[in-house]
TrEMBL record:
Family: Belongs to the short-chain dehydrogenases/reductases (SDR) family.
Name used for this protein in its record: NADP-dependent 3-hydroxy acid dehydrogenase YdfG
Lineage per the UniProt record: Bacteria, Bacillati, Bacillota, Bacilli, Bacillales
Assigned keywords, A-Z: Oxidoreductase
Domain Ketoreductase stretches: 7-193
Organism of this sequence: Sporolactobacillus spathodeae
Length: 249
């Protein structure tokens, strides 16, 4: 599917990994990207890089656990570019641990970022999309949103939640005839900073090993996101599972 029209795409968690790769990939083909994350220096550098290459990019320092900061990100997109065509709820963390470690702070953090961050994104972008009767949410779930494993209970729970939230939103927007599309992207192992958040030393070596053995480039997920954006507007790619060929589970 060829890219025919430049879109305004907001990406949360754009300072590294999948978010950064998606920002670069979309900007290279002419989309205007609006980037949010907490690490300002990373965002600044990325925006400069995109602009140097002839693309359009702006950023707003955004912690997705703050509703007002997520709203400010949406406002920046609307003020600068006039509309939000695509909102990518990508920010997330994966501090796997077994329950007996009682890493309750990490459980709460995952709920706040991986679930509430997505909800704040929906709240920030939905009104203007409804008004224009046009838009798309792309929400990052995971293969862990389809099956769980020891040590992955809370992370999986948040990613199952992303799928449930996305599916209900899809159904509501279909009923409302709003033309708003909802896409869940569920990757397997992708080479990013994600495993760095794991503090359970009983689990970390095994996960690092899996990532070293099979993880694919974040650009593959950027390409997947672009593919979902490029589908004709009457067609909604509702969920894409994208794994390394070498990944068994
Ligand atoms: N890599 C994989 O194997 C994989 C597989 C399945 C699903 N995913 C999902 O893909 C998404 C992106 O992860 P990634 O692999 O690209 O990992 P990553 O390299 O660690 O990137 C995570 C991004 O989220 C941002 N972030 C974290 N907490 C945030 C907060 N409170 N507010 C705003 N931004 C926040 C980080 O930026 P700051 O620290 O600057 O805020 C960073 O840009 C996540 O939702 C993850 O669950 C990844």
């Amino acid at each position: 599917m060829a890219h025919t029209e430049s879109k305004v795409v907001v990406i949360t968690g754009a300072s590294s990994g999948i978010g950064e790769a998606t920002a670069k990939f979309l900007a290279e083909r002419g989309d205007k990207v609006v980037l949010g994350a907490r690490r300002e220096q990373r965002l600044q550098k990325l925006v400069e890089e995109i602009k140097r290459a002839g693309g359009s990019a702006i950023y707003h320092v955004t912690d997705v656990t703050s509703r007002s900061e997520v709203e400010a990100l949406a406002k920046l997109a609307l003020d600068e570019y006039g509309q939000i065509d695509v909102w990518v709820n990508n920010a997330g963390l994966m501090p796997h641990s077994t329950f007996d470690k009682l890493k309750v702070d990490e459980w709460e953090r995952m709920v706040d970022v991986n679930i509430k961050g997505v909800l704040y994104g929906i709240a920030a972008a939905l009104p203007s999309m409804r008004e224009r009767k046009s838009g798309q949410f792309i929400n990052l779930s995971s293969v862990a949103g389809h099956k769980t494993h020891p040590g992955g209970g809370v992370y999986s729970g948040t990613k199952y939640a992303v799928r449930a939230i996305s599916e209900a939103l899809r159904q509501e927007e279909a009923v409302a005839q709003s033309n708003i599309r909802v896409t869940i992207v569920s990757p397997g192992a992708v080479a990013t900073e994600l495993p760095n958040s794991i503090t359970d030393q009983d689990l970390k070596p095994g996960i690092d090993q899996l990532y070293e053995a099979v993880a694919i480039s974040a650009t593959r997920i950027a390409e997947t996101i672009a593919f979902a954006i490029d589908a004709p507007v009457d067609t909604s790619l509702n969920e894409i599972i994208v794994r390394p060929t070498m990944q068994q589970v």
